[in-house]
Design goal:
Length: 208
Amino acid sequence: MIRVVLFDLDGVIRHFDPAHVAEIERRHGLDSGIIAGTAFAAPLIDEVTTGRITRAEWVRRIGERIGNAAAATEWGAHPAMVDGDVLDLSDELRAAGLRTAVLTNGTDTLPAELAAHGISDRFDAVFNSADIGFAKPDARAFQHVLGALEVSATEVFFTDDSAGKLVGAESLSMHTNLFAGVDDLRAQLIAAGVGIGRPAREVFEEAK
């Protein structure tokens, strides 16, 4: 029986506009994709998401490697949007008696980011790889979550927008979902036996 629904953060709950990054690169005369290509390349991304360097140092090194500190700083401050439908689903799951949590490959500034978004209290727990010391898809990150929540892997349903990040969860026999929108997630949760309402679009189609 599913007792915990575990959400990824970026790409599931929180979203960044790629057009904003493209505009930064255009204004600073940088090659398209160079910022993300640098920021999320190993070993730099591994160092920041396992807490070995701070977010500030990460951004500094990005600027150094692309040869433009101002562009990196601007990229590091670009705004994000929160998906209210996913937050509502978390609320619904909690009202149904389940616990919800977040597992993200984050940095040392994650608590401040969540507070700024006003979403800290919409989940029962938040797990940050920078605190754990292991990042998804490392199975040890998921094992940390299981230990902290005192549940078995088969009692957890994990959703992430990256197929590669699901591997560690699958190796432990967690229920997994490649996130493709909140309606699909809701349908997959129901298929896994979670007692929540069906996607609104399905109800609407039946009523037509």
